[in-house]
What does this fold into?
Amino acid sequence: MTGTVVLGGRPRRSRPLVMIAAVLAAGAVMALVVGPAGLPVRGVLDELADRLPWLDVESGLTSRQAAVLWELRLPRVALGAVVGGALGIAGGAYQGVFRNPLADPYLLGVAAGAGLGATVVIVSGAATALLPFAAFAGGAIAVATTYALARLGGTVRTTSTLILAGVAVASFFTAVQTFVQQLASDTVREVFAWILGRLTTAGWDEVWLVAPFVTVAVAILVTHRRHLDVLAVGETEATSLGLDVGRVRLTIVLAATLATAAAVAVAGLIGFVGIVVPHTVRMLSGTSYRTVLPLSLVAGAAFLVLADLVARTALSPAEVPIGVVTAFVGAPFFGIVLARSMRAR
Amino acid sequence: MVRTRLTALFAVVIVFVSACSGAGDGATSTEAGQATDTGFPVSVTTATGSVTVADRPSRIAALSATHVEMLYAIGAGDQLIAGDLFSNYPPEAAQLQQVDSFNLNVEAVVALEPDLVVLSFDPVDAVAALAAVGIPTLLLGTAGNLDDVYAQLGVLGAATGHRDEAAAVVAGMAADIDAIVADVGDQASGLSYYHETDPISFYTPSSLSFIGQIYGLLGLESIADAAPDEFESGFPQLSPEFIIAANPDLLFLAGGGETLDTVAARQGWDTLTAVEVGNVFVLDPDVASRWGPRIVELLDDVAAAVAGAKVPVGAP
It folds into this structure.
């Protein structure tokens, strides 16, 4: 089989980008307008417009309402965009590099490994700044284990071999993570709240903590996106075209793992973004990674901002863990992808 | 409230309280007793640092049942607007807005327009988020010992303009506790007990925990002291087998709606001496899981249990 599954029609040009960017912008504005503090919609829109360089609008918001907007809602939208973008592009990259439409940061065990790394940091009381590094170490070990396990027979035989290996690795890392979490009963609630997936933030700290890691990972993935198209035709063919397959693979896997680890470090385990987003993008724009990766970044941001909007309004004023929302959408979607990939075989 | 208790000892809080007089030369305050009550702005120190309360708060959101009890006790009840889902004492607390502090939505708290927020735990860093919006927030974690309780009452007194009442409550509690301890004397010393909060997974307070220290005032010893507790959480996990083997002199039931009958019906538990002779006592789970002024009631209940315990307690 070929590495990618065609889910949609012919590729179109810039229309998908404009569409997805419009969804992201609309989602962000909605997320800024809606919330239990009940800010006046007009006031919020005026306040936002006021920040545009060429406009000067009196919003009429009180200073506390303005603080809710700028210090509570906006950082949360920004964090959702960063985390969603990272998970979306990581999913697309894993699918390309493993030539497997079902590959995803969660199904490969990367997120569970990153979760273990982050849990160790939280439980040991080490500095928060170490979170992304520990998460990356855990994620890298997990993905390496999954790949090694899937290749035991020499080559990765079928799509499901890699996923089954990933499931085993994820279960193992989750078990270790739970063990570590239970060891330290004084932090168990903190870990528990985080592991379910959440975008609750205290101002901009979390955004600045992971933005550099996501930026580096995205830069590497975007500059390597054409290599993924070459890899898609097959390993032998790629080598004959002059591509150092081993090195490119390693680079892309590490970059995708870095993006995943950064997302997990601040937002916990938010599943299915890496499946839903790249496949939706393929339906819109075709299967070339040249467009799939950048679009997955933007679409991932849009998806998670919208999912968070649902998470914090569905049971308002209480919150639903965002991982529940993405799984609710993502699991059925995964079923569809699975069905199509079997038909494509 | 099992989870609240699992975080015991996590936040040993607050060492001192300081008032800062906003006035310039500091020589202006009168010597009248109530002058301290009007001394806003006030700065208090908690685990998260110094918090300044600009004016006497009139819209307090205390998202912790313990602190709702403390605030009513020091006369700040009419300044309260919100409690958490468990705030049920005193009865007036039922009229407060209820906020789910386990799934805290910071923006929903802001929507209540509080001028002071009190939290007992903070997994989502709400303290920083509320500070960003300009709402002073006191994080007063589970007390590690009686001094923490007194210090928290002092902080709340200073922050709400009830410094003198808080001092009176602390003095009253200390006197009551001393009286109960003196009354019990050495009747209880060396007796072992099992305090059940959690009939499912048997996380059990040891003498390290706050409640274990309350029992310890009377000389009682927790059977959980013999269980491994590497991180010194004060709440090691036991098993029914461990509890039966330890054969505690007294059983206290403070969770899960258990009674002498339900405990006796458990496999093997009917062999416990305490169950056979009826040394099983049901405690109010709310009183036993909070660290507010009602710990005096708890101590009194335990003292009464010791006095009413049937022989052969402690018999060899």
The radius of gyration of chain B is 21 Å. The mean pLDDT of chain B is 85.
